[in-house]
């Protein structure tokens, strides 16, 4: 085959041959560097990454501890065993239902043996459950508990009957001491202190209806107070001059507060003097249900 027509394409000058040879040398050097040099980047150490790894190690350790540790078993009163707990301990549905039916009759088991008699569980299951039973004292001796309960009720009824038989002396609530208030059935140290505090805030009580405003007094206790006390308005009561009192003086009155006191001052400036409680009742926010009591503290 004649390659002479192609020979002209392979004729290079001296400079071209030098360039080709130099390019070949460069390619060989680069190939050698590529195969033998390590171009991997050095791994940088980040403080946050180390902290996360440390935390993850601690979490894994805690999980492993939780998986390996044995669950704690607590004592319980078998009278209040739930369906779920009974099932977990190995009781059948019928055995649990027998106990629930027994409890619906307001009865209690007071021993492991009685528990077995009621539920009909096997001896093997009882040997597993019995060490977990914890019976309260009153189920251990139900007869004594009932006797003590009856005795307590009898004594309470006796106290009430004797209290009712005593002659009731009606006192002025504004003159009553803490000891006087505590003599009323249902009132202790806390409630008596609360009543005296309310009297101090108001200056005095003007009606026994104000006992309903004392927090914590039940309707029964309020009735007892009405039986033993009455409200006598003292002549020294300093009434509030409704037409001359400042906003601050009106807002300090327990039945007004700041918003209503401001409304009263505005009403005075626009309509003149307030003549009676009926005029006050026209003001927005006025407690109409307390109008009679409030009027006894005011001077028109």
Q: What is the strand and helix layout of this fold?
A:
Layout: H1 4-7, H2 14-36, H3 47-68, H4 83-89, H5 93-104, H6 112-119, H7 123-129, H8 137-140, H9 142-165, E1 171-172, H10 178-182, H11 189-202, H12 219-228, E2 229-230, E3 240-241, H13 247-251, H14 257-271, H15 277-281, H16 291-295, E4 298-299
Parallel strand pairs: 1-2, 3-4
What's the gyration radius in Å?
47 Å
- Physical arrangement of strands within the biggest beta sheet: 1-2
Please work out how many helical segments DSSP would assign.
Answer: 16
Mean pLDDT: 82
Described by the principal axes of the CA atoms, the overall outline is: flat
Number of strands: 4
**Which structural class should the secondary elements be placed in?**
mainly alpha
Order of helices and strands: HHHHHHHHHEHHHEEHHHHE
Give the strand content: under 5%
Residue runs with pLDDT of under 50 for 5 or more positions? none
Can you summarize the main beta sheet?
A: 2 strands, parallel
Distance between the termini: 139 Å
Percentage of residues in helical conformation: 55-70%
